[in-house]
Amino acid sequence: MSTLQAIPTVYSDHQFRSRLEARWAVFFDALGVRWNYEAEGYDLPSGRYLPDFWLPDHKLHFEVKPRTSPEAFDKCCDLAMLTGYPVVMSLGQPAHPVESGRLLETDGQMGVKVFDETDGEWWVQWDTAAWHEVFDEHWPHASRFWPLPVGLGPGIELDEPACLIVCGVEVEAALVSDRVAAAVGVSRSHSFWGPK
């Protein structure tokens, strides 16, 4: 069985290992989300690992995969446990919103290191995640964009511990906005073949 080879791609003065990674960089730029590509490698119990993106304003690692695998999942778990920072593992390119409920079609997962007081153990809690526009009392004149659990619907309060860990503040409401949908469109339609 043959597999498709990744296409190395140049975008924003960075040489990405794949077109898929470059599309996510376009998406981040369209939303004004700062990113660092392959910023730091780690020695994990599962082996050496170089995460795709570090999002400094979000304090999380963002991994881009064409498909899921047990090895990729184990490395993301190890990364979250070692660093204490959330890890988002996104499968495929930025996804279009669907009309029903205004949620994103996504296979993205967010893993957050949590402490279980019942047995006194640390573990990684995973939840399906998509990019939301977040509104909070701490940001009265602005909105920001975060990968948060899906299925909540527009305008609903986000009281899950993962939201507090990722955003760093108590979040009042989030929704998949037109700006997220526009960024998905920009990412998917971007041509990497133009003049340099």
Q: Round the Cα radius of gyration to an integer and report it.
A: 17 Å
Provide the succession of SSEs.
Answer: EEHEEEEEHEEEEEHEH
Structural class: alpha+beta
- Work out the strand percent: 25-35%
- Number of helical elements: 4
How helical, in percent, are the residues? 10-25%
In whole angstroms, the N-to-C terminal distance is: 36 Å
Strand tally, please? 13
- Assembly context of the chains: single chain
Which consecutive residue ranges, at least 5 long each, have pLDDT under 50? 152-157
Task: Look at the structure and give the mean pLDDT.
Answer: 80
Q: Could you explain the architecture of this structure?
A:
The chain has helices at residues 19-31, 70-83, 161-167, 178-189; strands at 9-11, 14-16, 36-37, 42-44, 47-49, 53-55, 60-65, 87-91, 109-116, 121-135, 144-149, 156-158, 171-175. The protein is of the alpha+beta class. It has one domain (11-188). The strands form three sheets. Strands 3, 6, 7, 8, 9, 10, 11, 12 and 13 form a nine-stranded mixed beta sheet that branches. Strands 1-2 form a two-stranded antiparallel sheet. It has a two-stranded antiparallel ribbon with strand order 4-5. A hairpin with a 4-residue loop joins strand 9 and strand 10. Helix 1 (19-31) runs antiparallel to helix 4. The model is unreliable at 152-157 (pLDDT under 50).
